[in-house]
Every structure is written in structure tokens, then in C-alpha cells.
Amino acid sequence: QSQLVESGGGLVQPGGSLRLSCTASGFTLDAYAIGWFRQAPGKEREGVACISSSGEYLDYADSVKGRFTISRDNAKNTVYLQMNSLKPEDTAVYYCAAAYLYYCVGPDYEHDYWGQGTEVTVSS
Predict the structure, then answer these.
(1) Distance CA 13, CA 39 (A)
(2) Can you give the pLDDT at residue 108?
(3) Is 65 exposed, middle or buried (0-12, 13-18, 19+ CB in 10 A)?
(4) What is the greatest pairwise CA distance in the chain?
(5) Strand, coil or helix: what is 124?
(6) CA 10, CA 8: separation in Å to the nearest integer?
(7) Separation of alpha carbons 84 and 77, rounded Å
(8) I want to staple 39 with a disulfide (CB 3.0 to 4.6 A). Which of 2, 45, 52, 97 is the partner?
(9) What is the mean pLDDT of each successive set of 10 residues along the chain, which is 124 residues long?
(10) Pick from 51, 88, 92: which is nearest to 72 by CA?
(11) What span, in angstroms and rounded, lies between the C-alpha atoms of 118 and 104?
(12) What is residue 71's predicted lDDT score, i.e. its pLDDT?
């Protein structure tokens, strides 16, 4: 079964850091643009960060710019989201998604693969 699996979520205090991982099995990520998305209860799914298939082009939501960093390690077939200076409003379920494209696309695009999500809670 080809799939994406997220890991690294958990409970962290405001100002803390987490690194989320998105690992592919059954296919190779290097041909896919990868996006990180999140959804909080009662909220719409929103894009957080994305990386082109080459790794050369990155984009971030304004709300996380300067705090989050997306990267990919093709040798590990994994994409990461480093989250620093976390705020309570970052609390959400975080998902990664893969599109067989060079450039990033938004959350409404029919991605080829979606992970099942990992929960991030930022609270004292």
C-alpha cells in the first residue's frame, strides 16, 4: 500500500519546538511536491508550508513564516516540518500531502496521497 505517514506531534508549551516527519512508503517522494496542511476543530483546512519536488522552491503561510521550515531528505524518503516558537493558535491536526507535480498546490487540489495526520497541541 502506497501511503504517507506523519509523526512527531505531541504536547508542547508555547515557545517550544517540534519537528514533524512525513515518510512515504510504496513510492518515492522525489517526484512529488509536498505540502503541510493543518486543521483545527471548527476551522477550515489551511496550507502551512510546501516544497517543490526539486526542493528548490519553498512557500509558507504568512502565519508561520519565520517560525516554520520545510525540508526534504530524499535519501530517507521523508519531508520535515520544523516548527519553532510555537503558539497556541498552532494547535491542530497536521497533515502532509503529495502531488505528482513540480510546484506546490493548495489544499483543494486533488493530491495523490494524504497522510492520516498527527496532532499538535500547544498549551501551558
Answers:
(1) 19
(2) 87
(3) exposed
(4) 40
(5) coil
(6) 7
(7) 23
(8) 45
(9) 95 98 96 96 95 95 98 95 98 97 89 96 96
(10) 51
(11) 21
(12) 97
Collapsing DSSP to helix, strand or coil, 36 comes out as strand
Pairwise CA distance, residues 72 & 92, whole Å: 22
Type of residue numbered 45: R
pLDDT in the model for residue 39: 97
pLDDT of residue 1: 84
Q: Please, are residues 4 and 77 in contact by the beta-carbon 8 Å criterion?
A: no
Burial 66-76 (b: 16+ CB within 10 A, else e): eebbbebeeee
How high is the pLDDT of residue 40?
96
Give 107's DSSP letter: T
- Please, what sign has the CA dihedral across residues 120, 112, 72, 26? positive
- Amino acid letter at 40? A
pLDDT of amino acid 15: 98
The letter for the amino acid at 111 is H
Helix (H, G, I), strand (E, B) or coil at 74: helix
Write the CB contacts of 84 (distance below 8 Å, at least 6 apart in sequence). Answer: 17, 67, 68, 69
